[in-house]
Amino acid sequence: MPPRKSTETKTLDTTGAKIGEPVPKAIIDTNTASVGVPRQAASDLHEDLSALRKQIDALQRVATAARSAKGNADEAMRQTQAAVKRHPVSTLVAVAAVCGAFALILAGRRAEPPRRYLYRSALDELRDLYDSVRDRL
Question: Of 25, 29, 34, 73, whose CB has the highest number of CB atoms within 10 Å?
């Protein structure tokens, strides 16, 4: 696809980029047959620094929340270990009850025929009824 021709004229900066400035891609101006870099808007370092500080503050809040969540998880793990050490029989009974409940749920699902078979048998009964009525007529 051929490039679109621009109706506005841009002045190109043919001098090199200054230290610390972003280096933009060069532009080929077919109207004047020149190659250069379009003039860049002046950037404000104070705005850039304040934006970076805001991002750092947000990352520090995330890190603080992560440390807090890790501390809470560690505390819950310690409490669980202490409860298991104090009440080993009760813990074993509770784990067995949960495993038994899951086993019953899975066994109940496997024993129940899928609904599509129930609907299919009802549909077969209706077809048989229709056939018997049609035979009578």
Answer: 29
CA-based diameter of the chain, in Å? Answer: 101
Prediction pTM value: 0.38
Rg (CA), the chain: 38
Task: Compute CA distances 6 → 30, 39, 108, whole Å.
Answer: 9, 16, 72
Q: How many CA atoms lie within 13 A of 8 on its CB side?
A: 4
27-29 β-sheet, strand order? 12-13, 34-38, 27-29
